[in-house]
Amino acid sequence: MSQLHTPPRGWKRADLESDQSWIHLLTEQEIQDLEAGLRHVLALNKKEFELSAADFPLTPVTQKLLARTMDATQTGLGICVLRGFPVARWSKAAMRTLFWCMGLSVGVPRPQGKQSQYVSDVLNTGGTYRGGTGRGYNTNSKLDFHADGSDVVGLMCLHTAQSGGKSLISSSLSAYEELERRRPDLAKVLTEPFYFSRQGEHAPEEPPYYQASIVGFKDGRFACRHIRNHITGAQITFEDVPRLSALQTEALDMFDALLASEEICYHMDLQQGDFQFLNNHVVLHARTEYEDFPEPERKRHLLRLWLSLPQGQALPELWAIAYKDVATRALRGGFRGVGITPEIRAFEERLSKEHNIACRVYQDRDQHQRAQQQQ
């Protein structure tokens, strides 16, 4: 069996501390290669949805580096960090283009919110995390452990905080196995449907809330999609959503406690020039509260990219509404929002074809439009 077909394994904090091979320090040659590819892309002067992987030429060595990075998220620990890119040499706009093109090389980017943004600025702009419309990326708040809406989430660190803002990662597989060992009744609850709010960021054809399990299994592989803030949002916002049972609340509380436990949770400081890639289906992430520098140009600033990968595992059937498709070798995931244009849809279809994956994520939109035309 090839390594790529070996599912990610659960891990504990001590595992990541004792073997840090999941952190790759970029070589000077790799940096030069990425910068050469970036210069080439910038000279083309194309818009982001006009670009493809072919517009970002890399040497075979760096092509293999990016491929290995994505493979590392799908096997082993489910995480990989590329460290040491000289972001200070480039503008923020150029770094956005670099990150975007790295994503195009390995998968298909996914939309991330109401405005259908594909690269998000993780930056405190005064947002509110808690509540029926809260998201965490535009606040400086402490964030719960959660998965993002894609196969892989990538973060690129442009500026660090004055204090705080630690990146917390936890193996959802290890936490679930421990929950199953201690309280199998609560573990079972997590495999049953919960109601999730779309936090007011849904497209017109999408319902404002939906059902999905937190944990599921497909083809014998574990997958976890835990976004408690969205579960809370559904409870706060929608009167017709059933209230959480005492057993559901207990299961959520115990799972959250295990994810944050000293035995499992790993704390890391993202450094300027880091690229962090996580497999959302087996690794959950959180963040400590942080304080920014007083100067606006020194505020903590990360770029976030969500990717659908050709090699991504098949997902539980109960996730179909959330992901639009749960098959392997299929485009899936994202928070669609209201800004998907024909140009963006054509881009997704073209890039899916380039990566040899099916593109069926707009079937619900097409059905909705046909129904409207028949009225």
Automatic annotation (TrEMBL):
Transmembrane segments: none annotated. It comes from the Bacteria. This is TauD/TfdA family dioxygenase. InterPro entries: AlphaKG_dependent_hydroxylases (IPR050411), TauD-like_sf (IPR042098), TauD/TfdA-like (IPR003819). The keyword Oxidoreductase applies. Its cofactor is Fe(2+). It comes from Zwartia hollandica. Keywords: Antibiotic biosynthesis, Dioxygenase, Oxidoreductase. PANTHER family: GAMMA-BUTYROBETAINE HYDROXYLASE-RELATED, TAUD_TFDA-LIKE DOMAIN-CONTAINING PROTEIN. One of its GO terms (biological process) is antibiotic biosynthetic process. Residues 55-306 form the TauD/TfdA-like domain.
